[in-house]
Amino acid sequence: MRKPIVAGNWKMNKTVAEAIELAAAIKRELGDCKDVDIVLCPPFTAIQAVSETITGSHVDLGAQNMHWEKSGAFTGEISAAMLRELYCHYVILGHSERRQYFGETDAIVNKKVKAALAANLKPIVCIGETLEEREAGRTEEVIETQVRGSLADLTPRDLVECILAYEPVWAIGTGKTATPEQAQEVHAFIRGLLRDIADEAVAQSVRIQYGGSMKPANARELMGQPDIDGGLIGGAALEARSFVEIVRGAI
Ligand code: 13P
């Protein structure tokens, strides 16, 4: 069975002081939780402080992005080794906001996924269609291109280290959640793609999160779907109470 994984993507929110407060509150409630992999993804500036705050608990740490090169003249960028040094074990890659505002393509995401794996970071690879694409009946085509492009050339051993996050762009920050049926349909399609790219064992072991206006009121039903293995939470992860409730909904 796949262990559920719930990650909080704090995006560009929380000062260091606020991040410590939120991480400490989550640790108090969930520090001993072994049934769900719990990952906090603060902004870069708060990673070290959150790392120290959650130390000794089962709550884990991730980043929201990284560069694919090891070091060098890449002003403003952060490498995988820099994240590992702060005890990050996960990194969100190819979030739709990175794709939309920073021009990230599947080819770029693929380079980042390979660099993350080489550094022993587990990539949380985001995919998802826009409203326009869904209404044009192109959801599966878009998802297939993103999955094949972002995961190109990975071995089965690499693939099982990856987490996928299906985040329909129209559901992010909008309050519009995909229905459990809509989400399950795409998750099953993604699992089918993994079967095609690799094999049944890989398809059965890769965890696929849902993201997009997930909150305590809808989390349990979404994560209760057979191919939904957790959540990638934005807005509701900025408050301990709602994040904790969502995590409890995964058990
Ligand atoms: P919201 O939960 O705010 O819709 O954001 C989802 C998301 O983008 C997580 O990566």
What does this protein structure show overall?
The protein is an alpha/beta fold and 251 residues long. It has one domain: TIM Barrel (Alpha-Beta Barrel), CATH 3.20.20. The chain has twelve helices and eight strands. It has an eight-stranded parallel barrel with strand order 1-2-3-4-5-6-7-8, surrounded by seven helices. The structure holds 1,3-dihydroxyacetonephosphate (13P). 1,3-dihydroxyacetonephosphate is lined by residues 9, 95, 167, 172-173, 211-214, 232-236.
Describe the structure concisely for a colleague:
With 251 residues, the chain is an alpha/beta fold.
Number of helices: 12
The Cα radius of gyration reads 17 Å
**What spatial order of strands do you see in the largest sheet?**
1-2-3-4-5-6-7-8
CATH homologous superfamily? Aldolase class I
Counting DSSP E segments of at least 2 residues, the number of strands comes to 8
Question: What is the CATH architecture term?
Answer: Alpha-Beta Barrel
Rounded mean pLDDT is 98
Classify the helix fraction into a percent range: 40-55%
Structural class: alpha/beta
Task: Annotate the secondary structure layout.
Elements: E1 5-9, H1 16-30, E2 37-41, H2 44-54, E3 59-63, H3 80-85, E4 90-93, H4 96-102, H5 106-118, E5 122-127, H6 131-135, H7 139-150, H8 156-159, E6 163-166, H9 180-197, H10 200-205, E7 207-211, H11 216-223, E8 230-233, H12 240-249
Parallel strand pairs: 1-2, 1-8, 2-3, 3-4, 4-5, 5-6, 6-7, 7-8
Helix pairs in contact: 1-2, 1-12, 5-7, 7-9, 11-12
Bound molecules: 1,3-dihydroxyacetonephosphate (13P).
